[in-house]
Amino acid sequence: MQSQKKVILISLGTGILLMLAKFTAYFITSSNSILTDAAESIVNVLASAFAFYSIYVAAQPRDTNHPYGHGKVEFFSVFIEGSLIIIAGILIIFKSAYNLVYPHEIDELIAGSIIIAGTGLINFILGYYLISQSKTLNSITLFADGKHLQTDAYTSAGLVAGLLLIYLTGLNYLDSVLSIAIGFFIIYSGYKLVRRSVSGLMDESDIDTAEEVITLLNSCRKDSWIDMHNLRTQRYGADIHIDCHLTLPYYFDLNKVHEEVSEVDAMMNSQVSSSIEFFIHADPCVPECCHYCRMDSCPVRSEPKSKDVIWTIENVTRNMKHFSGDV
Fold first, then answer.
1. Whole-structure pTM over 0.70, yes or no?
2. The predicted structure's pLDDT at residue 202
């Protein structure tokens, strides 16, 4: 978690400096669209500050009240960030609509464009850095902050193009039109973050993680792992929790079952960067499993193996064994 704190502090400090630069550009130009970009920078700073707090909370060890840890606070952090972005977008649209009716003079567009272009470039580089670190450190908070900064960079690029168009045409009303367009784009970006946070808070299955897990299970699959089904994945901060049913030969004793289950757990934790907590329910095999069982030396086989069942996201997530109708 110390690495995450360091990264988010870099984001926070940079955000404050860029916010000051954008407000400087606004005071130089009096451009409503530049004010829009500067207002979003306030959201960047507030979001980074809350992200730092959420990473601190997520690092706290499990306790009696939080047996799964505190990792879900990161989803709450993303929800706050997305909500702030949406609110900023709405305020921007109202302010821009007012200035469209009551226009004002705009000055020093070239100087303002240079400042905004510089802040946009820095935001894009910082956003790329945060996203790359989010994959290394398995942090949705860093990912959300990085995506937000890159969105801000795209907004700045569009803003610079619009300011140059205003400079060349002399049509000052385009400033408010551009600002309204940016406002809608900001709202959409905020919605995507809120949607992602709600899915995490509601324990929506992490499909990307599930597919990664299934790929690893297929590549390291033992013959004794006859079947796997009812697989569910959830992410709690940097930790992944997986529930599944594993079908093993019914004649295995309890020690052998424990050994096989532990081997699945150890294999997965050695292959991925996240900490994975497995809850594996062991099922005994039944005669209907024989036609896809890979155990050549099985002493109780009722029929020869006739097909191979490759585990996929479609069949492993179902709560049933793979009988004759499955492939």
1. no
2. 67
